Amino acid sequence: MPGRSSSNSGSAGYISFSGIESALSSLKSFQSCISSGMETASGVAFDLVETQTEVSSEYSMDKAMVEFAMMDRELNHYVKAVQSTMNHVKEERPEKIPDLKLLVEKKFLALQSKNSDADFQNNEKFVQFEQQQRELKKQYGLQADREADGTEGVDEDMIVTQSLTNFICPITQLEMKKPVKNKVCGHTYEEEAIVRMIESKHKRKKKACCPKIGCSHTNVIMSDLIQDEALRRAIESHSKRRHRPLE
Fold first, then answer.
1. What's this model's pTM, rounded to 2 decimal places?
2. Could you give the 3-state DSSP secondary structure of residue 190?
3. Whole-number pLDDT of residue 223
């Protein structure tokens, strides 16, 4: 956190925030470290689902993801508090140099006081992790998740058939190798195929509609697409089982 200004009295005149802005830049770069940590935790969680390995709650990847999300929220609040304080001082131009550290702490604590578990639904990586882990568990037919989503008692062959249908790209009509999910409508496509389709439409100054039959999403853009790690793993697992030699 930034320390107190060198003097608490006298004319503010011109206050240089270059040092603070440099520190903020470093803090923002740390957000990429949190993002990398979340990607690693997600990967480990998906590995555990694939191998159906149980771990104690102390080492749960779900718990790790919550802790990463909390770190990300706290860091965002601190960055907002610092930026808000700098903007306030620049606009007000006080006669006396204010106690910057105290101002930042007040704004930071005000933001932290509004924390709730619902905040995690604003963390894109956390939401993706929950959705993809749930889908992966469903693909592996884990009982608890079958009960939760109401598929318990549904014919196993029907579940397998539905899964295989989800493996097919609506553009190429082939099994996907690198699926990406549309955050807006939830449909998945082969990455290369949907990117090529979007680029082709944009070159002609047209919008790219979701190629899934019946979908009403009429403006698919690159930023809508996210890697569907759970589906990729499920497809690879199915492919390995399919090509496994008969004993």
1. 0.63
2. strand
3. 93
